[in-house]
Structure formats: C-alpha cells, structure tokens
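Dear Dr. H.,

I hope your travels went smoothly. While you were away I took the liberty of generating a structure for the chain from your last submission, since the lab meeting agenda had it listed for discussion. I wanted you to have the full record in hand beforehand rather than looking at slides cold. The sequence, exactly as received, is reproduced here:
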Amino acid sequence: MGVARRAFDQAPIVSVAGDASKRETAAHAIDAARTLGRISLLVNGAGAGIFGPAGSYDDAAIARVLESNLVATILFCEALFPRFRTEGGTIVNVLSSAALAGKPNETVYCAAKWGARGYSEALRAEAKGTKARVLSVAPGGMDTPFWPQRRRDFMNPKDVAAVIVNAIESPLTVTELVIARS
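The corresponding predicted structure, in token form, is as follows:
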C-alpha cells in the first residue's frame, strides 16, 4: 500500500493518490490499507526539497517543504499511533541527514526535517511501555527522482531500503538509524 501525489501501478502494490499533508488523504489511505488486512507498519517517506539561501524562500515554498516533510509525517502518525499503542505496530519515519546537521542552502528543508526528528523522538517517548515502536532513519543522499539529475555518487535506495527492513525485522530494538555511504 502506498500513497503518492499521483496513482502508480506497480503490482502487487495498491496506491492512493493524494497530498500526504492532508488529513483526508491519510484517512483514505488507511481505509484502503485496512481492506488488505491488519495494519502493523507505517513508513513515512514523503518529502519535497526546495533549496536556496536563507531569505530566498517565498511563502509557497516554505509551506510546501514543511507540509510534505513535517505535516504529512505527523498526520499519518496521528492516524495510526493510537491503534499501534494498544495493538502493536511499527512507525518508521524516514528523515534525512538534514535532520542531524544544518546545511547551507537547505535552511527550510533542515527545519522541516529537524521538526520531524523532534516529533519522532517525542512519539517514541510516548510509545514507551506500549506495543508501539518508533524508528527514525536519517539516510544521507540517495540517487532518487527527488533530485533533478542522477546522483551516482549518492546511495542506491534499494541498499538503504534493505538496511531499514533489516532494522524493522531485527530482534533488537533499533530506535534511530543513520545511514551513510562508506
């Protein structure tokens, strides 16, 4: 089950088209996922990057970066966390290395990712003693369509996904994961 701005057709994945920063999209996606069975995993990986020096962002750019990187994460967590607390479930919030260190020309993006990291840490504190698990992942640059041009010096997203799946399936409790290219 996936959510994207546009519907995608990649069997056996069911997709819901919509803006992940809207509560209605989260509700619709969760209703669609429920038809497939019990929901026990939420992976928040939505995001948009608009880059430039501080002072160059207009209101629309600020809103887009905050909504896609922070608000979307919060809305999906808010929708599933109460159930995960009692029934069990894992939330994986895919952040970025921008959630760990300020970077020039990424001020608003860093602010959104730091906000998502803070939300994840607070959510993890609330999950203590419950059946919910919260994992924050901060990968470095990945060679994905996020970037306008191929970034062959960046990590392969399949490799990053494999590390995340390993952390989810690990018998050890992994709460934070920083993934960097060696």
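Two observations you may find useful: Residues 59-87 form the longest helix (29 residues). The domain at 38-179 is CATH 3.40.50.720 (Rossmann fold).

With kind regards,
E. W.
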